[in-house]
Specification:
Elements lengths: L26 E10 L6 H12 L9 H27 L8 H16 L1 H4 L3 E9 L4 H10 L2 E8 L6 H16 L6 E4 L7 H16 L7 E7 L3 H5 L4 H16 L6 E6 L12 H10 L4 E5 L8 H17 L4 E5 L6 H15 L4
Parallel strand pairs: 1-2, 1-3, 3-4, 5-6, 5-7, 7-8
Length: 354
């Protein structure tokens, strides 16, 4: 370079008008999403939660003309009181919230701590519920206001299903439709066969079984059910549940007759995925099985369907029909094993962004 040659001068800084919308630097949002919980156990909070949940076309696919009178005239008149009592039995009274909310918050806080060194404060972590609060729409707007022009959605459902994973994403996409400046979005796929998930489940189960004062003759692997019609329409949920069960059984080294697959929480008169958990529990007890354990690997956090339905209702079914020893093995929750899974999924899906 000759002495006469000089580098081009830096362009002058652009002064924005005083009324120009605030512009944040580029950041990445990570939003953990779970199903939801009512805001209280009394009639009106329960009714509001159930109405939002049971009005979702992804959950109930019946025609509106057929379903609407049943929902509004029958179910929302009777079910809030009964379900409110069930929720009250598992309620986190210290925080005045359902356990699903407590656990999802903790999962988010721990994930932020684990990934703090990945990109510093460039990643913003948050959580939302598909039904109830904090709602998905408000949290996506919050992430955008924090300067996130890229958002990773992480549905906390190991197995994909339209009434869970898809409806959570529907809610997020509806929020994006209302934004003038949309962030780029990724959705973490289901992780039903991820080695990190299977390994964490096996480690958690071994630890839980080691704390028991008995060795269960049979362990039921209970997944949330869905109408059989949804499977016939092409929903992959049943196939992914079966694969998770098979891989977990192989990891634990258990024979199929000792580690059985069942489906719980059926609702309404239609046929659901079988075999049913409650009927299996009853049949095992009546056939002479004296000790039983149940695990629910399809749930990333304990909730009403595990803490009340499995640990209370199915315990009573087993003991009242001749069983003697029963144990419910907790979900991964915010344990070290559970956080290993969420961290592995999040790290993988952030690749290329950080």
């Amino acid at each position: 370079m000759s002495a006469q040659t000089s580098l081009p001068a830096e362009p002058p800084a652009i002064a924005l008008p005083a009324d120009h919308p605030r512009i944040q630097p580029g950041r990445i949002g990570v939003l953990l999403m779970n199903l939801g919980t009512p805001e209280g156990t009394s009639y009106w909070p329960m009714r509001a939660y159930l109405k939002e949940f049971l009005s979702d076309r992804r959950v109930i696919e019946e025609p509106r003309w057929k379903w609407w009178p049943v929902l509004n005239l029958i179910i929302l008149s009777t079910r809030p009181g009964r379900k409110g009592k069930d929720y009250a039995s598992i309620w986190n009274k210290e925080r005045d919230e359902g356990p699903l909310k407590t656990i999802t918050r903790s999962q988010t806080e721990q994930l932020a701590q684990r990934l703090e060194g990945l990109a510093g404060d460039r990643i913003v972590f948050d959580w939302a519920m598909r039904y109830g609060f904090p709602d998905v729409k408000s949290r996506i707007r919050h992430l955008q206001n924090e300067g996130c022009d890229r958002i990773l959605l992480v549905p906390l459902y190991p197995q994909y299903a339209a009434p869970t994973s898809a409806t959570a994403c529907d809610h997020a996409f509806r929020a994006l439709m209302e934004m003038r400046w949309q962030p780029a979005v990724r959705v973490a796929p289901p992780y039903h066969d991820d080695p990190a998930y299977i390994g964490a489940l096996a480690a958690s189960m071994r630890a839980s079984l080691a704390r028991l004062d008995f060795e269960p003759e049979v362990i039921l692997c209970s997944f949330h059910g869905m109408p059989k019609e949804y499977l016939l329409k092409g929903d992959p949920y049943h196939c992914q549940c079966v694969k998770s069960w098979r891989l977990l059984r192989e990891e634990l080294g258990l024979p199929a007759e000792r580690f059985r697959l069942t489906f719980q929480s059926r609702f309404g008169p239609d046929e659901w995925l079988q075999p049913y958990t409650d009927e299996t529990v009853k049949a095992l007890a009546q056939a002479g099985t004296k000790s039983l354990a149940i695990v629910a690997p399809g749930f990333s956090a304990d909730c009403l369907e595990t803490l009340e339905e499995l640990d209370v209702e199915n315990r009573e079914i087993f003991l009242h029909n001749g069983g003697e020893k029963f144990a419910y093995l907790p979900c991964l929750n915010d344990s070290a094993e559970g956080m290993d899974v969420i961290e592995a999924v999040t790290r993988r899906e952030l690749m290329g962004w950080v």
